[in-house]
């Protein structure tokens, strides 16, 4: 095992990538969403790393989390000096856990997002104006259907693996339930098979924060000032749930910002306040408030256990050949390890081949995004085994 | 021990109580706050239950939590039928943990509050208008000083006990540090000796939510519509932190509100959403947004460990005769048991007599407010011991 680990150290950069667009579902061939609404045409922004093998059997789909995008690794050609690489650059690249010398890695911005794929801020072809609140409510299953359409377009009918964390992990599981025959290996990370009341509660507070901002204007703000204050508070709520008590103590404790004593006012006193305000105000420049509303709703709807047929649930995976590596983090209290164990149990109950690893980390839910060789080693070793089998 | 427990079952009602007002600190004799600001006159609303003994040695001060008030037990004379009793009615009354046949129980609305005591919504005598943002920033120590003035007024120079949960527990600890010779027994419940980064983070998000509401108007809203939307979101944030993952699962799970299926819209789908919205909208009719801002700040400033002399810290309790009963709850993640243990350690380090009890409860921080015979039994038994010693 140690030898396997050693071969998956983070060694190279995934290099540059380019955002590409794929459009499908022109009327009358729109996508019928789980709600019954029809949506189309749909554009999906995606990026790829590595080369598709002649046998077309080395594709890995990376599913991003709620506020992520298609830029999972490497740099853009026109990145300014000092730009940060993609959000999972520590995992994707030559010699890394998702080894781009061997895999063809694909990551697409999710439906409902705001980084190139069709979402509430996109132009509604029927009106020539942004969808806003006319964007239909969607589900994790709908997101998966758009990814399936993209793979069809790329000529990929089998995936070596689907991997993703948090809301990305939900997509992984939904893939397995919808297209088990297409997925050789699934790696759900820091996620759950059914969104808990606590997670719904935090999402609902975030949504209410946006909706309380008068600039939200029932979702019609694309011609005016956007609801930045409400969105910033929503992001601050999210950020607290991504961290852990321990991480906050270590990172900030009760340290004061810029002064010797507390200020006895409502300006920032503590570093943790400054951090949260910064996270909130940074976020509003890159994310759309309506996207947050729709994507959190999709996550809240996610439940692989109780589903009305004909929707497939986790029980319908009986007999699937997909191999699972389930990963959780010790200090993640948004999608805690006990929920990962419930997932493992449910998968084993229907006879699947499941490996499970809880990674010791004190940084909360965010741990899956923080560069850590252990994740790369686990993923690389697991995929080696899958290839050999 | 079991016999002691049996004698403290919840047996009687505390009967009716009446809100009384005490005013002190007329200029030029204002109270000098910890910040250096001067405030006066100050009115404190308080209620009492039971009779002060001729020896004046049976007084128990109950300190309320952030959104509480002086109405800790019993009913008001003019309560409509079906009205709820005070917030700690399960603990206060004849034969209960705080036995009003034996104790004289006092509870005062805290400084900065909005239930009769001077706070940001009170009239500033200098302007004839509500203080609003001119209300001075205050600390837990300042709250204790107003309680001390009330006790002086009532002719009470020694307390059988001070007891309180959450922010009330901070007041208990501050009492011990400021007036150790006055406090025979201290019962800090579900609290901490220094507000953690996580707790500060949640308070800061709640504050930002209020300040993001344009109706807040920098605290000047008493002549106009108050910032109810921002305050409701702030309350929702608080409510999530008062519960636990387990309690939310048990109480709500993923149960839907009023329907067979999800609604694919932004109306309430899940019961937990309905519950939070209800908590938020109920709160705005009884609480002042500025009070929330000032009281959360006082909690955030609370740190009994690192203080600049001459302010007294927990180390200055060396040699005090006060006996402690520290109580925490297993599922409280806002003020977790490890923080109670740190408190116990710090008290023992300076040689104090400390009992500690962690109560098994799955309902989170709120546990201390939920009627539970165990709390009454612990408190009653502890006070029996204190009386005997």
UniProtKB/TrEMBL annotation, chains A, B:
Q: Which GO terms describe its biological process?
A: homoserine metabolic process; methionine biosynthetic process
Which residues are substrate-binding? 235, 366
Q: Which SUPFAM superfamilies match?
A: alpha/beta-Hydrolases (SSF53474)
Q: Which UniProt keywords apply?
A: Acyltransferase, Amino-acid biosynthesis, Cytoplasm, Methionine biosynthesis, Transferase
Give the UniProt entry's GO cellular component terms.
cytoplasm
Q: Looking at the Swiss-Prot or TrEMBL record, what is one Pfam family this protein matches?
A: Abhydrolase_1
Active site annotation, chain numbering: 166 (nucleophile), 332, 365
Q: Where would I find the AB hydrolase-1 domain in this sequence? A: 59-369
Q: Which GO terms describe its molecular function?
A: homoserine O-acetyltransferase activity
Q: Keyword Ribonucleoprotein on this protein?
A: no
- Catalytic activity annotation: L-homoserine + acetyl-CoA = O-acetyl-L-homoserine + CoA
The pathway it acts in is: Amino-acid biosynthesis; L-methionine biosynthesis via de novo pathway; O-acetyl-L-homoserine from L-homoserine: step 1/1
EC id: 2.3.1.31
EC primary class = transferase
Enumerate the InterPro entries for this protein: AB_hydrolase_1, AB_hydrolase_fold, HAT_MetX-like
Q: Where in the cell is it found?
A: Cytoplasm
Q: Which family does it belong to?
A: Belongs to the AB hydrolase superfamily. MetX family.
The record's annotation in NCBIfam families points to: homoserO_Ac_trn, PRK00175.1
Under what name is this protein listed? Homoserine O-acetyltransferase
Task: Please name the taxonomic classification of the source.
Answer: Bacteria, Pseudomonadati, Thermodesulfobacteriota, Desulfobulbia, Desulfobulbales
Q: Which gene encodes it?
A: metXA
